[in-house]
Amino acid sequence: MIHPACSMAEFLEASRGVWLTRRAVHHLDHQDDEFGDSNLVIEPFAASDPAVAEICQALGIDAATAAGGARFWWESNLKPLSRSDDQAAVLVDIPLAEDSRRGFLVRDKGYVEKQPVLSSYAFSDDGVMTVTTRYDTNVGTERCWFVTDQVRMRVSSVQCMDGVAMTTYCTELRCPSPDSLQQLRQQADALAAALR
To answer: Is the model's pTM score more than 0.70?
Structure first.
């Protein structure tokens, strides 16, 4: 059983690494579905990272209230390390002083509208994170939780002012690092040698 995250810092650290994202998107206005796979790369950073001051300044927020954050990249799972600024985002965590399970995320660009954005977040007792973002023309809600330390689930919805809505469902599987694959190979080789 996985220990539920009690803060955004814990959640981001548990999310560190590369995830294979299997995604289904449903557009409610024209009953159309999209499916796809991609890699999601998450790299948490401390409050001393230069991105904290830069992003907080863009939205007029005191950087001293930040507790770090993370860089995100979305890349093709067929072309690892194919990173571009168009498929990336940086977020900064601003937890509430009185409750570490609640706070704000400051992002250099939103998922829906590519502009600096402020979101609110909260963790439930069972570790489900809910993020709400209000853009100029729509509202996005995302929920994310760990099933195990190797599997995450993520669901989101976007409600536009004209009534058009979209929902997304993702299953995310942690990808092993090259080092961990090499260790597994060495263990397998050692076991095979011992059985000869």
So the answer is: yes
